Amino acid sequence: MIFRRKGRKGKRGTKGGLPIQDFSSFVHTHLTPDFMAKVEKFEDLLVWQKGLTQAIDLYKLLADCKDYGLRDQMRRSSVSVPSNVAEGFERHTNKEFIRFLRIAKGSNGELRTQIHLAIGVGILSAETGFELLSKSRIISAMLQNLIKTRQEKFG
Fold it and tell me: For the chain, how are helix, strand and coil distributed in percent, rounded to 5?
C-alpha cells in the first residue's frame, strides 16, 4: 500500500509522500491513548505489525538478490525493528521498553540507508525503493510517537 496521492511526488509540505496534515492524523489515529490502553501483548501494537510486514515484504522482495552482503544486512535490520519492539515490551518496565523502541527506531533508520543504497546500485527500482522508504518513515514516526507517549504517560 503506497500512501502517496496521485500527482504528489515528495513536494514541500509532505512527509513520506503524505501531506503533513494527513501524515500527522494517520500517526495520531493509530497511537491514541485509548489505543494504548487496550494493548495486552506486543502483537497488539500496530507499529509491531507494520514492522513485521516490512520485514516479510523485504524478505520476499530480496529473495533473488545476488548481493548477499547487502541483502542479508537489509534483512537483519528489517527483522530488528519488530524484534526490538517485542523484546522491549516483554521486559515489563517502561524504561527498558523505551530503550528498545529507540533501538528499533535506529534499526529502521539503518534500513532506510540500505534502501537508498539498494536504489543507487540498481538492486531496487526507484518506485519500489520509494514505496519502502515511505513505509519505513511511517514506522519511524510511529515509534517516535510511542516513545513520546511512554515518556509522558508512564515516565
Answer: 75, 5, 25
Domain span at residue 138 reads 17-154
CATH number at residue 76: 1.20.1440.60
pTM (whole model) above 0.90: no
Place of cell 497488539: 44
Q: What is the CA radius of gyration of the chain?
A: 16
How many distinct structural domains can be found in the chain? 1
Kindly report, residue by residue over 83-140, the tens digit of the pLDDT.
999 999 999 999 999 999 999 999 999 999 999 999 999 999 999 999 999 999 999 9
Q: Are 70 and 120 in contact (CB under 8 A)?
A: no
Separation CA 107–CA 3 (nearest Å): 22
Measured CA angle at 117 (ends 59, 45), to 5 deg: 45
Q: Where are the beta strands (DSSP E) in 33-140?
A: none
Helix/strand/coil for 121: coil
Q: From the CB of residue 72, how many other CB atoms can be counted at a distance below 10 Å?
A: 12
